[in-house]
Design a protein that fits this description.
Length: 680
DNA sequence: CGGAATAAGCTTTTT
DNA sequence: GCTTATTCCG
């Protein structure tokens, strides 16, 4: 090795070094925010490889796709440096690094023959799964009872929780969905039919990737075969794993040898996905001898004032295991900025972001975080108006837009003529052809020996005849078109339907063009359709083509999507009660605690500067039903007055408050609307 | 039967 | 405000 190269392991502190060099017993690393968790895990992998481990036999599981990519990159860079490779040589890759779901999909395809699964199974994203649930729900005539049966989305949410929490329908309904009590028996019937429908159509939903994997592992011979492929299993963000994932890990490494899990209970924010904080808390005692536990508490990210404020917020948590973070780095206190309303908030943030850019902070070093996807909307408008480029993470998924799903369905139906979901969707797009005819067509295809013959032989109603002929022609051309030319053909057929069905066809055409560009980066239609569900484009932007990598742009992100990231400057929108915690999440103590951790996650993303925005007038809902419902100036309950005084600098810029409020002292926070309502 | 018009929910976060 | 379910009309 070239001695002149900096030793990538020299920078580790004692706790990190212990985590990197530990061998033998299972290992739990409690890694607070910004304590070099990713770097430590990457260094551990690199060390293992340098000590002779085979990269092909290292399984590195992460929770999100973004974390998987980051981990890949860091491991590669470390190994590249440690091996003294030349700049022109590519970094070594870890073939088994990915999300639980992606690794599950890969293993299931490989072992499909052994478990009676069709190896060409396709994946349902959430919207597909909802549609299928809706289909089955209708088939069983569950929608027409006297008491309204839960909607398909709710049904799927219940089903998903049943699977991921490994709990019974009765339990899940009682604890998580109390408002659907009384429907348990029908739900069980529905879920059985849903499972049946998925198996007949050879499709898996997200939950199946974990469930089938876990079921596979419950067969000793298969568990042995799969477990034997990996010498080391490392899991990131372990606090966000659910019972199903914990069961998979136990089956992979029953004695815990070579098992490393890393996480931070103070950052557990995915209980809505049935994540179990107990997984991480109970990890050490699960093994004999018990796992070794190491804690990383030195923060390399943030200044001490930012950490002090963050520590103060999380210190009020009802239950907590992680220690306070410390960095000792000097800096300014975080700011608590009062603004008049959400429009003023957007203006202030845009101004502030530009000001910081003038001071030398590139836009990409800055981020704006918010609780829900649409809370960024006002800011998006303002940024667009001023021509400030941005990329938004989280929130509404590109792939779930109706027109994107339509175009994908055209391709899916061409690929798999028996796939009912895609077929139904496309068939009802044909002018003059409605649900009843579509059902007739689908039944004909299902019962026919040759589905394509059934398709060609279908006799639509007179009203649909012309549209049907067009479709048949497009379908025939599509069948043997090369990739990515096929998607262009599909779009050409779809565009007239788009014009006919949507007023805003022009905007939607931009999305389709983007989809076409994405499609061109895949080598075949099969790969495109299979991988898009697990690895969809993760950011949307106002421009039809996403900014190039080397361009500068501001990051907008939900707090959830921000996990694991860091920026020099962070703005947090709407630090008001009703948003933090979200008014939908104030049901019981656990939910509120999770919201507290979410704010903690958001605050600890900042390196040098942290700004929390407090709009004095904040719209609670978009409903106009009860008039214009909004709340006045209630700072989030997670920052009580004493914390605000000690750890924050308070600001109320005149420009952001509006003329009449500018020269008055801060007004008392009252919910006048509530008072008036109480008067009656 | 198809499709427009009307009524009625429900609303987060991600793989 | 948006999607979904139901009703009504051609």
């Amino acid at each position: 090795m070239n001695a002149a190269l900096a030793d990538p392991f020299a920078a580790l502190n004692d706790a990190q070094r212990a985590a990197v060099e530990h061998r033998g017993a299972p290992l739990l690393v409690i890694a607070g925010a910004g304590t070099g968790k990713t770097m430590t895990l990457a260094a551990r992998v690199a060390r293992l490889v340098l000590d002779g481990a085979d990269p092909n036999r290292i399984l590195l599981l992460t929770f999100s796709r973004r974390a998987a990519q980051e981990m890949q990159r860091r491991c590669g860079a470390l190994l590249h440096a440690a091996l003294g490779l030349h700049a022109t040589q590519g970094a070594p890759l870890l073939p088994w690094a990915g999300t639980f779901h992606a690794v599950g999909a890969r293993l299931l395809r490989e072992y499909a023959a052994s478990i009676g699964l069709a190896p060409q199974f396709t994946l349902l994203d959430r919207a597909d799964a909802e549609d299928l649930m809706g289909w089955v729900r209708q088939e069983l005539e569950l929608g027409s009872g006297e008491r309204r049966f839960p909607l398909k989305g709710t049904c799927l949410a219940i089903y998903s929780r049943v699977v991921n929490a490994q709990a019974g329908v009765d339990d899940v309904v009682a604890t998580t969905f109390p408002w659907v009590r009384g429907h348990e028996a029908e739900l069980k019937r529905l879920f059985a039919a849903y499972v049946d429908a998925k198996q007949r159509q050879q499709v898996l939903d997200y939950d199946d990737l974990l469930l089938y994997w876990q079921q596979t592992m419950s067969e000793p011979a298969l568990a042995q075969a799969i477990g034997a492929r990996f010498d080391h299993v490392l899991v990131d963000e372990y606090q966000d794993t659910n019972r199903l994932q914990a069961a998979i890990l136990r089956a992979l490494q029953p004695d815990g040898r070579g098992l490393t899990v890393v996480g931070d209970d103070a950052q557990a924010i995915y209980s809505f996905r049935a994540a179990e904080v107990r997984n991480i808390l109970d990890f050490p005692a699960q093994f004999a001898p018990a796992a070794r536990t190491l804690a990383l508490t030195h923060n390399y990210r943030s200044t001490q004032p930012i950490l002090d404020a963050s520590n103060a917020v999380i210190a009020r948590a009802a239950e907590r295991f992680t220690k306070d973070l410390h960095s000792g780095r000097a800096g300014a206190k975080p700011r608590l900025v009062t603004v008049a309303d959400e429009a003023a908030q957007a203006r202030f943030v845009a101004d502030d972001v530009l000001l910081q850019r003038e001071n030398g902070l590139r836009l990409r070093q800055q981020a704006v975080l918010f609780r829900t996807g649409h809370h960024g909307a006002a800011l998006e408008l303002e940024l667009t108006r001023r021509g400030i480029p941005f990329v938004k993470y989280g929130g509404l998924r590109f792939l779930e837009a109706a027109h994107v799903k339509d175009l994908l369905s055209v391709l899916r139906w061409a690929q798999n003529p028996r796939g009912r979901l895609a077929a139904f969707r496309v068939a009802t797009l044909i002018p003059g052809l409605g649900p009843a005819s579509a059902r007739r067509l689908l039944d004909a295809i299902e019962t026919a020996a040759d589905p394509l013959a059934a398709l060609r032989g279908f006799k639509p109603s007179a009203a649909a005849a012309a549209g049907w002929r067009d479709w048949l022609a497009a379908h025939a051309a599509l069948a043997d078109a090369p990739w990515p030319g096929a998607i262009t053909l599909a779009r050409r057929w779809y565009e007239p339907q788009l014009e006919r069905l949507h007023e805003d066809a022009a905007i939607r055409r931009g999305d389709l063009a983007q989809l076409e560009r994405i499609a061109a980066t895949f080598t075949s239609r099969e790969r495109f359709l299979a991988e898009l569900t697990l690895d969809p484009p993760e950011a949307t932007s106002d421009e039809s083509d996403a900014p190039h990598r080397d361009e500068d742009y501001l990051i907008l992100s939900t707090m959830h999507s921000a996990k694991g990231q860091e920026w020099a400057s962070v703005h947090v929108l709407n630090a008001v009660d009703g948003c933090m915690p979200a008014d939908v999440a104030t049901g019981h103590g656990d939910e509120i605690e999770e919201e507290r951790r979410l704010l903690y996650v958001a605050m600890t993303r900042a390196r040098h500067q942290l700004t929390l925005l407090v709009p004095q007038k904040f719209h609670l809902t978009q409903q106009a039903k009860y008039g214009d419902r909004h709340l006045y100036g209630a700072l989030t309950r997670f920052i009580p007055e004493d914390i605000a005084q000690r750890h924050f600098e308070r600001m109320a810029p005149a420009a952001a408050l509006g003329a009449e409020a500018a020269n008055t002292t801060p007004l008392p926070a009252i919910d006048l609307m509530a008072r008036v309502r109480r008067a009656f």
